[in-house]
Amino acid sequence: MVVCSREENGWSGGSGTSFGGTGWTSGVLFFGGDAPAGAAEAVVRYEGAEHRVPVVSGFFVFVAWNAPDGDWGPPELVRFT
Q: What is the model's pTM?
């Protein structure tokens, strides 16, 4: 995953990391991984709420914006639908 920013003349690449698992970069918390064959959504629990995340090409990615560095609870994969 790469965090990009919109600038006057277009998009600019920023910091990034490899895919899979949980990570944080530039205020963006992400959690993702492989999904089983036939899954349409991943249900992810984060900060007490459940979020439905689409499965695309066998993968899911949950993203929380504006997450402060080190001040977040880890997301949890609840189930696939």
A: 0.76
